[in-house]
Design goal:
The complex is a heterodimer of chains A (113) and B (114).
Chain A lengths: L8 E5 L4 E6 L7 E8 L6 E6 L4 E2 L4 E4 L5 E6 L8 E9 L14 E6 L1
Parallel strand pairs in A: 1-9
Antiparallel strand pairs in A: 2-7, 3-4, 3-8, 5-6, 6-7, 8-9
Chain B lengths: L4 E3 L2 E4 L5 E6 L6 E7 L6 E7 L2 E4 L8 E4 L6 E5 L8 E8 L8 E2 L3 E5 L1
Parallel strand pairs in B: 2-11
Antiparallel strand pairs in B: 1-3, 3-8, 4-5, 4-9, 5-6, 7-8, 9-10, 9-11
The chains are: A mainly beta (113), B mainly beta (114).
Chain lengths: 113, 114
């Protein structure tokens, strides 16, 4: 089973920031938080990951709380093309099967004009 | 850089028939994954290869599903015989090495079993 809890759906106005929450209260010290998204009829796409510090790349920012029990993915200026299902995944940095990605149902983000 | 290629994109078969899906990973990626995604759910890992060896096939229904990656590059996933509940999108992904969470996914094959 997935180790994360996400809201099933969210709406965001185009051009505004989209803040997607994720709870992972049972995360252990060596587990990372990964975010993927899946646009309709496409395969999932890696967005960003982090351990304890906040991370930013060209796609998004990841804010992890100090106790690491929750995180927020931020899309700073959402566009219609950001409409997708967003998956938050907790994963150990192991090789072999221990490091496999376990997807939940994610959050369906709808960006509206 | 070319992405993960999969074919066919769509397939419709009758139950009890057999079907095969093909995947060509990103060049140089040693690890290859097959996932099954049922409508409304997240992808579920079926099998993971490291080069031409199986790392994890614990979720693969081995009575009807098989997969191979003989030369450590492209891979084939087969279902024989298919059941109605096998209707899903079959996704292939690859990564440079095992132990990384950055996986690159193909577009998937949508299978409909009637």
């Amino acid at each position: 089973d997935a180790k994360t809890t996400q809201p099933p759906s969210m709406d965001c106005a185009e051009g505004r920031a989209a803040n997607l929450p994720c709870n992972h209260s049972t995360i252990s010290g060596n587990e990372y938080v990964y975010w993927y998204r899946q646009i309709h009829s496409q395969g999932p796409q890696y967005i960003i990951h982090g351990l304890k510090n906040n991370e930013t790349n060209e796609m998004a920012s990841l804010i992890i709380t100090e106790d690491r029990k929750s995180s927020t993915l931020i899309l700073p200026h959402a566009t219609l093309r950001d409409t997708a299902v967003y998956y938050c995944i907790v994963r150990g940095n192991y090789g072999g099967s221990q490091g496999n990605l376990i997807f939940g149902k994610g959050t369906k983000l709808s960006v509206k004009p | 850089e070319a992405g993960v290629a999969q074919s066919p994109r769509y397939k419709i078969i009758e139950k009890r028939q057999s079907v095969a899906f093909w995947c060509n990973p990103i060049s140089g990626h040693a690890t290859l994954y097959w996932y099954q995604q049922i409508l409304g759910q997240g992808p579920k890992l079926l099998i993971q290869f490291q080069n031409n060896g199986v790392v994890d096939d614990s979720q693969l229904p081995k009575d009807r599903f098989s997969a191979e990656r003989l030369k450590g590059v492209d891979s084939t996933l087969k279902i024989q015989p298919a059941k109605l509940e096998d209707s899903a999108v079959y996704l292939c992904a690859s990564s440079f090495r095992t132990g990384t969470g950055e996986q690159y996914f193909g577009p998937g094959t949508r299978l409909t079993v009637t």
